[in-house]
Amino acid sequence: MPVISYQSDDFPAFYCRSSGFKSPQRVDEPAVMAKVIEINWMLPGGKGILITTPTKPEDAIESQKIDMIIQQAVLEAKKNNIVGNSLTKYLMRTIDRETDGISAKANMAVLVNTAEVAGKLAVAHAFYKNRGWS
What we know:
Largest sheet: 3 strands, parallel
Helix content: 55-70%
Keywords: Glycosidase, Hydrolase, Lyase, Manganese, Metal-binding
Shape: elongated
Order of helices and strands: EEEEHEHHH
Protein name: Putative enzyme involved in pigment biosynthesis
Strand content: 5-15%
GO molecular function, one term: metal ion binding
Structural class: alpha/beta
Organism: Photorhabdus aegyptia
Number of helices: 4
Pfam family, one: Indigoidine_A
Radius of gyration: 18 Å
């Protein structure tokens, strides 16, 4: 499955703009991404594509800070035998508390930004699909 980062050289890490890993591919324009998606769908076996988009700079959390908070929350969860469906809720609440609500705002910003990028890609794809790919 192709992995492409939208407007970033780095593979993002949810709250952070970079995970510390380089993205295999980068595309900057919705029109180019739309063409890549269409070509991928036309290839034998080409069904899925992972498009990553980084958090906007003003919404990102410093990776060292959030990594430390997440590690501590995971340790506390293990210590308290929190597993299964309860684990995600526990981690989200703990991370939110430890970041004084910044993580919840960043989480919402990630969702909004992802929707905005998806909308741009959908519009570009529809445009080229209706008008031709040349």
